[in-house]
Amino acid sequence: MKKIIAFAGTNSKTSINKQLVTYSTSLLHDAHVKILDLNDFDLPLYGIDFEKEHGIPKNAYAFLDLIKSSNGLMVSLAEHNGAYSTAFKNLFDWISRIEAKTFFGKPMLLMATSPGGRGGESVLNIAKDRFPRHDANIVEIYSLPFFGNNFSNGKIIDDELNLQLKDAVKQFELSL
Ligand SMILES: Cc1cc2nc3c(=O)[nH]c(=O)nc-3n(C[C@H](O)[C@H](O)[C@H](O)COP(=O)(O)O)c2cc1C
User: Fold this and answer.
1) CA angle 66, 72, 77 (to 5 degrees)
2) Which of 11, 12, 80, 143 has the most ligand 1 atoms within 8 A of CB, as the residue to mutate?
3) Which 8-state DSSP code applies to residue 57?
4) CA-CA to 161 of 20 to 30 Å: which in 46, 54, 58, 88?
């Protein structure tokens, strides 16, 4: 059975992106899913001085190992001021110090949602441009706008947007 790692790019305990990525994993047919929470991988703020003095923290190695041992990644990024959340960027910076090819060519379903109408478009554009330089194999990109209107009780309630996600998950599964 394929091993899927899913996580949201945020440290919010009530994350809408975690809700979206969790729902997305429920659409997989036959996979062993591990949903990660960035709060379980506490890391100091990246700094070259910290790294020189203390090295790279164990949690960065642990997260990278989970990516490495997976068959595919489902990622939903929170957008803060048009970019990655600090929590995700910090993790990304740390793991990139261990291994530049942080995503090991694993198929990725890249997602974002936000309360507004752009559905995290800016952070998706950043990731779409950047992740392939770290050996990401982005199979599909999905954006859910107006989370509060379109998501309820753990699932997408807009038929069209739900169908789009189902299609994206299907393509992702076919690529595994
Ligand atoms: C500091 C900060 C900046 C934000 N900037 C944006 C933004 O640029 N675009 C956007 O769509 N939402 C923005 N938001 C709203 C987030 O999309 C919203 O908080 C969302 O819940 C974050 O995702 P999460 O719940 O998965 O952490 C911002 C929120 C915070 C706290």
Assistant:
1) 80
2) 80
3) -
4) 88
Q: State in Å: Cα 3 to ligand 1 middle.
A: 29
Three-state secondary structure call for residue 60: helix
Q: Which residues of 73-103 are buried (b: 16+ CB within 10 A; e: fewer)?
A: bbbbbbbbeebbbebbebbbbbbbeebeebb
Task: Note the pTM of the prediction, 2 decimals.
Answer: 0.98
d(CA 175, CA 14): 30
What amino acid is encoded at 13 in this protein? K
pLDDT truncated to tens, each residue of the chain (176 aa)?
Answer: 999 999 999 999 999 999 999 999 999 998 999 999 999 999 999 999 999 999 999 999 999 999 999 999 999 999 999 999 999 999 999 999 999 999 999 999 999 999 999 999 999 999 999 999 999 999 999 999 999 999 999 999 999 999 999 999 999 999 99
